[in-house]
Design a protein that fits this description.
Length: about 140
C-alpha cells in the first residue's frame, strides 16, 4: 500500500468516526458526554489534517458520505460506549497501516494517532489489547 493510499484510508475512517461520534454523543450518558465531545473534536482535527496531507501528496481528498452504516444498533448509552470503542479500534487499524506505509514525519504522526486511538479505546472499553491496531495480533 502506498502512503497516499494509506492516508486516503485513514481519511475515510476519520470521516466515519466523526459521523459515529455524532451518534455516540446523542446516546451516551451525561457522565461520558465530555469524553465523547473531546473524541469527536480530536477526530475532526485528524480528518482535517488528513485532507491537507492527501493534497500535499498530490491527491484529491474524498468528501464524507451523508451517512455511514453502524456496526450494530445504538439505542442507548451502553451501546454508544461499545460503538465508541469500536470506532477507536477501527481507527487504530488504519493508522497501523499508515505507520507501515509512511516514512518520516507522516509515520510519526500516524504512530501518534494510533496511540491516541488505543488510549481512547481503553477508556471506553475499560481494558486494552496487546497490539492495538494489529488485528492479526489480537
Amino acid at each position: 500500500m502506498s502512503a497516499l493510499d494509506a492516508v486516503r484510508a485513514a481519511l475515510a475512517a476519520e470521516h466515519a468516526a466523526v459521523y459515529g461520534y455524532g451518534v455516540v454523543g446523542g446516546r451516551v450518558g451525561d457522565d461520558r458526554e465530555d469524553e465523547a465531545t473531546a473524541a469527536h473534536a480530536a477526530h475532526r482535527a485528524r480528518r482535517d489534517a488528513l485532507e491537507r496531507t492527501v493534497r500535499d501528496l498530490g491527491g484529491t481528498p474524498e468528501a464524507s458520505a451523508a451517512a455511514y452504516a453502524l456496526p450494530f444498533p445504538v439505542p442507548d448509552g451502553p451501546a454508544a460506549v461499545r460503538l465508541a470503542a469500536e470506532l477507536e479500534d477501527r481507527i487504530a487499524g488504519v493508522y497501523a497501516d499508515l505507520v507501515r506505509a509512511a516514512e518520516g514525519p507522516l509515520r510519526r504522526e500516524a504512530a501518534a494517532a494510533l496511540r491516541e486511538a488505543a488510549v481512547r479505546a481503553v477508556r471506553w472499553r475499560g481494558s486494552g489489547v496487546a497490539f492495538p491496531g494489529l488485528a492479526e495480533r489480537r
